[in-house]
Amino acid sequence: MRFLLFSFVFLAAILAVSQERAQPSAAQAQSRPANPPFSEGVAEGLLSELRDGIVGQDRGATLALFDQERMPDYSDFAERIGLMLERYDSFQVRYQLLQIAEETGANVAIVDLTLEAIPASETQLPVRRSAQLRFTFSQGKAGWKISDLQPRDFFAQF
Predict the structure, then answer these.
(1) Out of 15, 23, 60, 138, which could bridge 147 as a Cys pair, Cβ 3.0 to 4.6 Å?
(2) In this structure, what are the phi and psi dihedrals at residue 56, rounded to the nearest 5 degrees?
(3) Could you tell me the residue ranges of all domains in the chain?
(4) pLDDT at 17 over 50
């Protein structure tokens, strides 16, 4: 009988410990918000991922940063990005985040961006373009995304 009682208490203790580990505490859940408010860090993170996607020539990772439901003419934009990544052998991307702001409910970042594309063929010259771009960010279920970019034709010249 004592053995059964001991086994029952032991199993109950294991169950209690496993449930405690499986569920985060209220303090842990509050310390990491699902969708942080728009900030310089949010903009910087997305711009860094954009740079990494272009430099790595990863079409999927690059386009995943954009909100295809909110971005006007997303399919045309996605096609341009895909063509650009296919045409060149490598890329260099430099950017400087100049300003973030909230304009009539939109979260905006002004960015100086320089993109240099190195062609695969030695007979072609590298293409370099610099511009001041206006990124608009939107928050969705999956976090922050880029929902617009002006001037849109920045990538069309590659």
Answers:
(1) 138
(2) -80, 0
(3) 39-157
(4) no
